[in-house]
Amino acid sequence: MSPRRAQHDIDGKPDQESANFEDVFSRLEETVRKLETGPLSLDDSTRLFEEGMGLAKRCNELLSATELKVTRLQSAFAEQMRFVPDDPDDGEDPDSDDDHDH
Description:
Blueprint: H1 21-37, H2 42-82, H3 96-101
Helix pairs in contact: 1-2
C-alpha cells in the first residue's frame, strides 16, 4: 500500500480535502477567474478545469455535511422541546389568580 500523495494545482497549492468551506470556495473562485482571464495552454486549462470540478464537488460535500448536521440539531432540539412541560398559567403570575379569587 503506497502512501497517499497530496495533489497540487498549477500554483503548487495543497489538496483541498482538509480545508474548510471558505478556503475551498475561495480557491474555486480563483480557479474560475484564472480560466476566464488567463491565456493558458490546453494542458493548464484542462488541469484547472479538473481542479475546479474537484473543488466544486468538495464544496458540495461540505455543504451537505453541514446541512445534515443542522437537520440533526433541529431534530434533537424538537425532541427536547416535546418534554418541556407547558406553563399551565400561560406566563401569568401564579399569585395573581389567588388575588382575584379572594
